[in-house]
Amino acid sequence: MPAPPPFFILRAHAAPLSALHFTPGNTHLLAGDQDGVVSVSDLRTRRVVASWEAHKGGVLGVGEWAGGIISQGRDNAIRLYAPLSSGPPEITREMPANALNFCAFSLARVPGEETALMAVPNLTDSELIDIYALPSLDRVGAAVNFLPRAKDGPRSGLVMSLHLAVLPHTAPREAEGKGKGKARTEDQLALVAAYEDGRVELWSCPLAALLERRAEWDGRKMADKLWSRVWEGKAHNEAVMAMAVDRAFERAFTVSADHRVVRIDLAALAGEVAIKAYPTQQIGNSALAVSGDGRILAVGGWDGKIRLFSAATLKPLGALAYHRESVHALAWGSPDPAPPRRAGTLALGADSDSDSEDGGGDEAGDPTNWLASGAKDRRIALWNIDIAR
């Protein structure tokens, strides 16, 4: 059975795409390109509602925070924007960021609070990782992955990709009258980092211990071992080009310039087998994304194709063909519901140059099955991946 074509094509950018992100509820798609332009497309009307030069240089990452937008660029800046109303949004906060290694930020929301934590490369040492709190933008952890090494010891190289997550840890509590059966939560903060030398590391720390500190923790200076390295392994012989981690924090995936897709079983790191490599038929992959249910892995290649795999077994499920040049960005539809709309925000009806080559309507299907792909050809393709799961 031939693979389905995309159900819609967005032509909102004049430069190769570099970043994509679905907002909760899949009402909007955020996109960034290599000229620094960020666009917001309304997926209900399939029109661009805002587009502006967010950075002097390429966009490394885009995301949503507190009803607004967050972007990171090659101009060494991360910017937070007010909720969109009409035209380009207002910048509310800005911070410096190290863009030398092309590594995008990773954002993890703190459950039950209107705060989040963000992992980025260290400002002065591109091998190290810092953690910032939002919305304050205070640095709460510096050089969290620092390990002493011999004077002539090997260097890991640049941090290439990051994934930060809050992992709830539930432990039983002694019965206290009507409180019997309840649990207390001791959340852990987990960080997966991929490096220029092909290695991947997993780090963790107690979330409360990090947030309750009055001063930032610096791995190069502090005697207390707040952060600990849980695991490290060699995924590739060359630099990791892209990494994706599923929402359940069970599996991580990496690709490089080689022909391998690597799966790391995060839940099995205490055992003997954690890494499995699947050899593909082509050399060079540049983008990864895991579906919201964690079952399908999409891999974007230099040849313009998007190959789909079972996340559990790496069994090939098929390939999508539309782009004529390298696929640089992938994003799956969000399984999260849309938050309540703030009055006066996300106004619709802006004109767009986008059109459809492949119809739409009923072909679009369930938005949680949507896959967006952005490529060097400056186009964004929207696919409905309705595979039996």
UniProtKB/TrEMBL annotation:
InterPro entries: Apc4-like_WD40_dom, WD40/YVTN_repeat-like_dom_sf, WD40_repeat_CS, WD40_repeat_dom_sf, WD40_rpt. WD repeats lie at residues 10-51, 371-389. Residues 332-371 are annotated as: Disordered. SMART domains: WD40. SUPFAM superfamilies: WD40 repeat-like (SSF50978). The keyword Methyltransferase does not apply. The keyword Membrane does not apply. Keywords: Repeat, WD repeat. Residues 286-334 form the Anaphase-promoting complex subunit 4-like WD40 domain. Residues 352-365 have a biased composition (Acidic residues). It holds the Pfam family WD40. PANTHER family: GUANINE NUCLEOTIDE-BINDING PROTEIN SUBUNIT BETA-LIKE PROTEIN 1, TRANSDUCIN BETA-LIKE 3. Belongs to the WD repeat ASA1 family. This is ASTRA-associated protein 1. It comes from Cutaneotrichosporon oleaginosum.
